[in-house]
Amino acid sequence: MAHARSVIGNSSHTIDQPYIPLQPPANPSNQSSEEEIPPFPTPEISTITLENKPGAKISYTYYPPSSSTPHRPNPFAKSLVVYLNGLMLPRSSWEASMHSFLSKRITNQLPYPALLSYDRYGQGDSDRDPDDKEPPPCHGHDCQSAVHDLRQFTLQIWKEHLDITSPTNFPALIFVCNSIGCAIARLFAQTYPGTVLGLLFLDSIMANTDLGKIWPDPDAKGFDPHVLPPGVSEKDVRDARVKYSRMFGPDIPNSEGLSRRNLATLLPSSSGPRLNGYGGEGPYLTVCGHDWETFAEQSYTGSLHTPKVLTMTYANPAWQTYNEGLVQITDEGKAVGPLIAVGCGHFVQKDGPEFVADELVSLLDRVVNRVEQVSERDGG
């Protein structure tokens, strides 16, 4: 059952551009005048070259963690929140939610971890993957390659910014991810067990599904047109299948060069395998899906022009079933969801940055307080 929540090392490292800091949060009305609000952190907008891929830069935005003292230790001092993009939106799409999250923590004088967003190779401000042999759009590399790059990237960031005196350690990672970023986060946790402390999934890609095939096939033998919703023709369904296959099919290349041809093989099930997270336990997990009405409206008014009744009848239920499987990839009591991001389409961070910030706050509270949730897998 879904629940709704309202949206109110030896690296090349250069600073690329000046940054005008966002305005710090205003002093809340209930804040004592004697208490000073900690300063809003100044982000670093920069590039880094991976040690194993010289000659190509990755662009990133980094917010340092809150200070840690013997009297007020930061429980997230050894943690790193990493935002993982989908295919369509670059790292800049996270900025509003990052700012909102930091504002909430600072105004309440609560500690916060370091925040890191980045553009994968071929995205946003980053260079193309130097290992890609063809120009974009192409199938230059797959999600497993993106996972290896992410491991090297986070390791170098950790060495340079957070663990200078003891760079052999690795941070407890918390991934905030959208769309295919959720698949990359799952593969990372599988490939590098014991590293991921928390996961916030925002409308994960259905990694094991060809989206063109979620619709009925009117040309299949024995197809019964009477099963279609009222007012929907065979042509409507056929058009939806063709449009989705041409835009989202796993064989369609993209400008990032990130191939999805083998994604269903890499992640054949939404409900497994069970992840081994930081400290040998399953990671804390929050699974969020899009608002059905909002997604149906955006699918109709967007380039696909999919009739809303089709999206409501076929696409939304399929996505909900996939999300219900995702809550099973961690230990019992560690998962929350699937939640519905009210008012948000597929790009939750764009439509609801406050929702993303609130869910990250909630996830961190569970992490630091070791709170487990009542399981809803059996309808409880």
UniProtKB/TrEMBL annotation:
This is AB hydrolase-1 domain-containing protein. Residues 81-358 form the AB hydrolase-1 domain. Residues 125-141 have a biased composition (Basic and acidic residues). It comes from the Eukaryota. Pfam families: Abhydrolase_6 (PF12697). Signal peptide: none annotated. Residues 1-47, 121-141 are annotated as: Disordered.
